[in-house]
Design a protein that fits this description.
Keywords: Hydrolase
Organism: Saxibacter everestensis
Bound molecules: zinc ion
EC number: 3.5.4.32
CATH architecture of the largest domain: Alpha-Beta Barrel
GO molecular function, one term: 8-oxoguanine deaminase activity
Shape: globular
Oligomer: single chain
Protein name: 8-oxoguanine deaminase
Helix content: 25-40%
Largest sheet: 5 strands, mixed
Amino acid sequence: MTQPSRLWIKNPLDTFTGNDLDASGGIVIEDGRIAEVLGSGRHPAVPCEQVFDASQHVLLPGLINSHHHFYQTLTRAWTPVVNTPLFPWLQNLYPVWARLTPKDLELATKVALAELLLSGCTTAADHHYLFPGGLEQAIDVQVDVVRQLGMRATLTRGSMSLGEAEGGLPPQSTVQAPDVILADSERLVREYHEPGDGAAIQIALAPCSPFSVTTDIMSASAELARTLDVRLHTHLAETLDEEEFCREMFGLRTVDYLEHVGWLTDRTWLGHGIHFDDDEVARLGAAGTAVAHCPTSNMRLASGIARAVELEDAGVPVGLGVDGSASNDASNMILEARQALYLQRLRYGAESVTVDRALGWATRGSARALGRPDLGELAPGKQADLAMFRLDELRFSGSHDPLSALLLCGADRADRVMVGGAWRVVDGTLPDVDLQQLIAEHSAAARRLVSG
Ligand SMILES: [Zn+2]
């Protein structure tokens, strides 16, 4: 779709800017960026060729998903793992996932991104760590799908190198040799990683978790990430089983292990980050290591409640993630913000965990976790990534404060979504995607995958 050179998104019903700016007069978009943020009653400094009347829309920065496994949309609500915690959940699923083909991954990535986009998400991080025979080009497949949908993504080159034979959790058929992992990581960064503002594709390095990789691959990944100047991602402190595993295998608690392998830095963001003690919260904050809070997954697998407010107060950038779609089992960012609000209220009380705080995790916090200062806020110079919601559905009827209604009444679908100045969701639909066909192909692939 061609874009006007200047677009005024005028007088929104309500806004969340992620900062102190007042955007009640709307925002002006130019060349894919936010040119102006207008206070109440103000008009653009220069006349705009196009005006979008936003008087029926709540305007947010595009939501940012900081932790996911797109491929898992193929194993949502799979009977053998509906009622299990993490370790048996993984052990049941590994052999199924080991059969993943490039076509499966393409369909799964498209479903996850389409679902995210329709929920107001403009940037997503994916943690992909499965490269069975025939799927060596997994990240290349994902890059193509992200480009088709016109979103932004941090695609992480995940890895597993510690199989059952060496005391790890994953079956031997799903692990790779360290030199293969590192060579492919470097290839992907050189081929696809876009540094700097406005990037559509970024690559990060992401050994899967302490119980599925060797210490060597953790250290070598950290070194390679420094050399290539890309970010580091892994699962950490998700469950007490993992803490126990680290104690037995390495003789260390999780954060000591992280420090030991050179990961306790501001280059790292961690998936989950639940089981930290006071000292560890302070150390993570001092290092500027980020955490992707995944409330639904943590409730689904009964993993625990992350110390999100204390982490944030200690200086940890806290983002929000829907996590893999086999432990959520949705990929809906605005609903995830609602879950974060409620789960964290149980821990810290209603007054500490405000609607603004939860939306901050879903936008600015996730942008910080992904190392994206150009995203996550409505401010001049930031990328024009926007999520806009209408409140004319039954569930909002009788609501008063529009911004609060988004989370409290359970908004689940954006009406308009813009990425870099281009509309990607229009009237609650994806103009370029045949959803019925996608659902049919993806469902068939999912059935094939679990039936072996
Ligand atoms: Zn995960």
